[in-house]
Amino acid sequence: MTEDIWNLFKNHKTATSGYTLKEAIVCATEFDNQHVGIYAGDADCYEDFSAVFHPLILDYHNLPPNFTHTPNMDFTKLTDKIHDESPIESTRIRVARNILGYGLSPGITRT
Which of 100, 8, 18, 105 minimizes the C-alpha distance to 49? Predict the structure, then answer.
């Protein structure tokens, strides 16, 4: 976080839940033992605060600067065969998504 980026976003609130950059980074500013320290309060955070989120996401996932995600929801491309030489012994898949227009867990509201 630079002073210029902070000054750019310090008064901004997201449209969905009114989430602020201050709320997004509270774990990093209040605790010194956080792995990431920033949490999106709603989907708008990723766009509104992209100058903060995007570089962190790329770094966290070790992705190149020009990376863009291209979803592929074609289930026919899934296979049920795990190769015997695979080093994977177990895995867990968790899918969690909010309903469009509502905050994510940190920014959820009653309305």
Answer: 8
Of 16, 26, 42, residue with least CA distance to 105 = 42
Other CB atoms within 10 Å distance of the CB of residue 31: 9
Burial zone of 19 (CB within 10 Å; 0-12 exposed, 13-18 middle, 19+ buried): buried
Select from 9, 19, 25 the least CA-distant residue to 41. 19
Q: What percent of the chain has pLDDT over 70?
A: 89
CATH number, domain with residue 89: 1.10.135.10
Q: What is the number of other CB atoms lying within 10 angstroms of the CB of residue 67?
A: 12
Domain containing 9 equals 3-107
Domain count, the chain: 1
Give the pLDDT confidence of 22-67 residue by residue, as tens digits.
Answer: 999 998 888 888 778 899 999 899 999 999 999 999 999 999 999 9
Kindly tell me if the per-residue pLDDT of 110 is higher than 70.
no
